[in-house]
Design goal:
Elements: E1 8-12, E2 18-22, H1 33-42, E3 44-48, H2 65-79, E4 84-89, H3 91-102, E5 107-113, H4 122-135, H5 141-148, H6 151-155, H7 160-172, H8 175-186, E6 201-206, H9 214-223, E7 228-232, H10 239-242, H11 244-255
Parallel strand pairs: 2-3, 2-4, 4-5, 5-6, 6-7
Antiparallel strand pairs: 1-3
């Protein structure tokens, strides 16, 4: 196993079912802040920083999607958790799909936000990795966050503080960690594998997401038996942060089904 010991933040009910929240490229565990108060009432919530992000170790890249999945399995082992719900956004969703295919015995139910099993062209991700290694994550923070939120959200002065918070989050991501994860995306193609997922799956798309539009999430749903699709209006790539009033109840409803 190629795992590193990722930084984890645990909250909620000590006797609750465990739900693991996996962050996007360029964010950290705080991207789920809008969900925590409600999720804590129902679950034992494990938020972690993907390798190369936040307070987690930053091994030299490139990474692979299996490396990221290994980190989650090692985290579950460290916590003594045999099986957990997995909720992931973008890169976190890619990790969740890999776990559900590769380690089905460790995965209960799955929620996939704004993600894809394949994100070509690979050269674009390799180029971004190179740019970040040379110029730093601060150089891309504004452009990245401009794709995370819908035009209406970005235009509202009331959201300026939140937008700046996320720009700072991207800029604080270690250059090598961000680049290594870009290379994991470049080398990933799970399209032929996700049909093996048996965990009950909810896929959620932001209607205004330019990176992983609703059609991408619909293709995931078509591949996974019994999967359901939710398209959220007035939301882009970081849909849980933009529309928590819609999304948080949807997470809870899906994870509490028997």
């Amino acid at each position: 196993m190629s795992a590193v010991e990722v930084a984890a933040h645990i909250s909620g009910r000590e006797d609750g079912p465990v739900v693991v929240l996996s962050n996007s490229l360029g964010s950290d565990h705080r991207m789920w802040d809008e969900q925590i108060a409600e999720l804590d009432k129902h679950f034992r919530v494990v938020r972690y920083d993907t390798r190369g992000h936040g307070a987690s170790p930053v091994p030299a890249g490139p990474y692979s999607i299996d490396d990221l999945a290994d980190d989650v399995i090692a985290l579950l082992d460290r916590l003594g958790v045999a099986k957990a719900h997995i909720v992931g956004l973008s890169l976190g969703g890619m990790t969740a799909m890999r776990l559900a295919v590769r380690n089905p015995e460790r995965v209960d139910r799955v929620v996939l936000f704004c993600t894809s099993p394949h994100m070509p062209p690979a050269d674009a991700w390799k180029d971004r990795a190179g740019s970040v290694r040379s110029d730093g994550t601060a150089s891309i923070a504004e452009s990245v966050v401009s794709r995370w939120f819908s035009p209406g959200y970005l235009a509202d002065p009331a959201n300026r503080t939140a937008v700046e918070h996320y720009q700072s989050m991207v800029a604080a991501t270690p250059d090598e960690g961000y680049a290594g994860c870009c290379e994991a995306i470049a080398g990933m193609d799970q399209r032929a594998e996700i049909g093996a997922i048996t965990a009950p799956t909810l896929a959620v798309a932001g209607a205004d997401d330019p990176a992983t539009p609703p059609a991408t999430l619909a293709s995931i749903v078509e591949s996974i038996a019994g999967a359901r699709l939710l398209v959220v209006d007035d939301a882009a790539h970081l849909a849980p942060a933009e529309q928590p009033a819609t999304i948080t109840p949807a997470i809870i409803e899906h994870l509490e089904q028997s």
